[in-house]
Amino acid sequence: MANDGHSGTRNAVGAGAGIERARVVLWLFVAALAVRQVAAVLRLPPGRRLTDLEAWTGADGVLHLGDPLYATGKFTGTPFAGLVLKPLTRSAEESLGVAWTFGSLLLVVVLGLVVSRALPGTVSRRTSLLAAPVAISLLMLSLPIRNALHLGQTSIIPVLLVLLGCFTVRDPRGSGLLIGLGAALQPTVLLFVPLLWLTGRRRAALTGAATFVVCTALAWAVMARDSWTYWIHHVAGAGLGPHPDGLANQSLHGALLRFGLHGPLEIVVFLVLAVAVSVLALRRAARYAKDGQLLLAVAVTGCAAVAVSPTAWQHQLLWVLLAVVGRVGKRVADRMVWPAVVILVMTLPGTMLLPNMAALYPVRDNVVLLTALAAACAVPFLERTSPSWEAAVPTAYATPAPARWSRVPLLPFWRRVMARPNLLLELLAIRVGYSVYSHIRAAATGGRDTAEAHGRTVVSIEKALHIDIEHWANHAVVKIHWLESFFNFYYESFHFVVPLAILAVLYVRSPADYRWARTSLSFATLLGLVGFYFFPLAPPRLMPGLGFIDSVHGTQDLAHPDYGAMTAMTNQYAAMPSLHFGWALWCGIVVAVLVPKRWMKAVALLHPLFTVSAIIATANHWVLDAIGGATVVLLGFGLTYLLAGRRTLLAPVDRAGPEPAHPAAVPSQATGTV
After folding, report:
1. Using alpha carbons only, how large is the chain's radius of gyration in Å?
2. Over 80: is that where the pLDDT of 613 sits?
3. What letter does residue 239 receive in the DSSP assignment?
4. 3-class state of residue 242 by DSSP
5. Distance from the CA of 34 to the CA of which of 138, 342, 458, 599 falls in 20 to 30 A?
6. Per-residue DSSP letters for 330-382?
7. Cα dihedral value 170, 172, 173, 175, nearest 10
8. What's residue 179's pLDDT?
9. Given a cut of 50, is residue 155 above it in pLDDT?
């Protein structure tokens, strides 16, 4: 018993030390993000940084005394915001820009601290210690904060005023005063006044409404012409700023304009939808507030404010990120779906989340609005009284079969899940992963001279090894029309289709094998990116003077290959290793390992055989590129084995309670390993 007590104490001390180390690392990450954000803003030339701030500062700023506030259309804030900001126009532009950037970062830190202390319910010590740096990091990485810092916008202030009024200031009048000031700066913040009323804070609600009226009236008295322009001519600022039908306007009004509605019909539809969204969101928010989830209630109301605002530019969308605190799903495995969706939507552009397909344009172009509407009206957030709030259905884990080496797996905490992963998360991970891969692949170029020099090195090595068959294969195939057409078709058609088809079948039929295969492919692709970055290589078809025929892309202008149409779409010098062959080899290995019949294994290996023939015959890769592709794939399988253990799994290990597994989720006890 004494030994057990000492062991438990040591484990507790070790866990505490681990949390402290993680906390230090996260705060260092926050500091690095802050330095990066400051540097990214201040390194830009004056004409490209803090562009919205420059619209009302300096001698020619639109807030210069005597000029109409909205003369140039660049200033989009309320007249009260203009009245508050007018004294700053006398500041020196350079010093104001630096101070504004550091001041905005300080507001982000305060915002993150308030959010981290407003988490609903009792939280663990680990959560309480790590919540603040995690919240600040997410805020700094989000598109609204990055956009606000770049433009020099004031959109952080209304969000902070509301949070301070809801969570920090206890006096009802002080709380209402802060929320009223936020509404005077951003009118849709007025939605928080009925939220206060519905949750029993009626004095705060009345104070907030009165503060808004007083601030607006004060601005009207001092700047009557500008107030008329904003509230009457532009209907609460609806016609200010960029085109309201542009993709930057993520409100219902902007979406309806993009869908082709205009004039009185669009106004009527917008007003009806705005009222419906506001009523439904406020009812949900009041329910969550009474349930003890005030931060979620604030997020739901803020998402409704985004949707019903006439204009909701990127720097005004911070409310959507706050919805990450909502709990969704009765299973532990599903708890990360909603937070992952919100974080991805708020940190990545829509083009990285969805493929470039016309049928998906309505979703891609309005992805933030759809997320805000979902949070405000549709997502079934759990209430704290729900049995699933704390006692969620646990995930069933399995252990890998014994490995050949005692130190495998190297990451014993990498617990293997037998159940099928969440489809939405997998699709998002595949899409975002491919977008990152494409961006890095396009950026990893050393220029034409370096790529051609590496090409000559490859030619020399292949000649020394007597494997320089590319020229012979290329000209031999071009002379046989049907064979040339076959290899051209094969090269263009199966690179993405076959791997995705295999992953889809494994996802449905054998989830555990799907995870193994997906992880191996991910490692191989990451290793391929390293090769692209450090060894840009001109493929045979772009090597001048060697006489190769580009049968797939047609005749290339080798005098200016850096500026050709193909190079504009993708990096033509990302040839080593050949992931075209590497992915095909991965397909052949996965199918050969998993299918039971020998003839099936042989058929599976035809795909990498045809692929390597196609990439060489069409002059798109060297033989050494194919060898490089095979190397990264084998290393991908090897890393998966070293880190996670063998592919085959033993029976599930119940560590947190029983979870009935779907029959399709339990893999067969195959004996083969890779």
Report:
1. 30
2. yes
3. T
4. coil
5. 342
6. SBGGGTTHHHHHHHHHHHS-HHHHS-S-GGGHHHHHTHHHHHHHIIIII--PP
7. 60
8. 95
9. yes
The token duo for 477 is 């195939």
Residues contacting 82, CB < 8 A, separation 6+: 56, 63, 69, 75, 219, 223, 226
Residue-wise pLDDT for 419-471, tens only, equals 778 888 888 888 888 777 777 777 766 677 888 888 899 999 999 999 989 88
CA distance 447 to 464: 26
DSSP 381-392: PPPTTSTTTTSP
Residue 78: name the closest of 153, 184, 209 by CA.
Answer: 184
Confidence bin at 82 (pLDDT 50/70/90)? confident
Q: DSSP state, 537? A: -
The whole-angstrom separation of Cα 525 and Cα 589 is: 16
Alpha-carbon span 666 to 191, nearest angstrom: 49
Tell me the β-bridge partners of 393.
Answer: 331
Contact 409, 643 (CB under 8 A): yes
Q: How is the chain split among helix, strand and coil, in percent rounded to 5?
A: 65, 0, 30
DSSP 263: H
Residue with tokens 């419906």: 276
The residue type found at 15 is A
Is the model more confident about 591 or about 491?
591
| The amino acid at 129 | L
Closest alpha carbon to 574 in 617, 537, 627: 537
Write out pLDDT tens, residues 367-385.
Answer: 999 999 999 999 999 998 8
Q: How far apart are CA 48 and CA 5, in angstroms?
A: 62
Burial class (CB in 10 A: 0-12, 13-18, 19+), 21: exposed
Tell me how many degrees the CA angle 510-512-514 measures, rounded to the nearest 5.
70
- b (16+ CB within 10 A) / e for 554-577: eebebeebeeeebbeeebbbbbbb
| Amino acid identity, position 76 | T
For residue 511, give the nearest of 599, 627, 449, 422 by alpha carbon.
Answer: 422
> If DSSP states are collapsed to H, E and C, what string results for 467-535?
CCCHHHHHHHHHCCHHHHHHHHHHHHHCCCHHHHHHHHHHHHHCHHHHHHHHHHHHHHHHHHHHHHHHC
In the structure encoding, which two tokens stand for residue 454, read together? 């590496």
Q: What is the pLDDT of residue 56?
A: 56
* Sheet containing 397-400, strands listed edge to edge, beginning at the edge strand earlier in sequence: 416-417, 397-400, 649-653
Give me 609's structure tokens. Answer: 């055989």
- Residue 639's nearest CA partner among 534, 522, 528 is 522
DSSP class per residue in 543-611:
-TTS----TTT----TTSGGGSHHHHHS-TT--SS-HHHHHHHHHHHHHHHH-SSHHHHHHHHHHHHHH
Residue 177 host element (H or E): helix 172-185
Residue 8 and residue 12: Cα distance in Å, rounded? 6
Give the H or E element holding residue 652: strand 649-653
Token look-up 């990893």 returns 444
The most confident of 224-233, 413-422, 441-450, by mean pLDDT: 224-233
Model-level pTM? 0.79
Q: Scan for tokens 């991970």, then name that residue.
A: 429
Task: Name, in order, each residue with C-beta under 8 angstroms of 188's C-beta and a sequence gap of 6 or more.
Answer: 305, 306, 308, 309
Question: What is the rounded distance in angstroms from the CA atom of residue 364 to the CA atom of residue 342?
Answer: 14
Name, in order, each residue with C-beta under 8 angstroms of 553's C-beta and a sequence gap of 6 or more.
541, 566
End-to-end Cα separation, the chain, in angstroms = 44
- Within 10 A of 658 (CB to CB), how many other CB atoms are there? 10
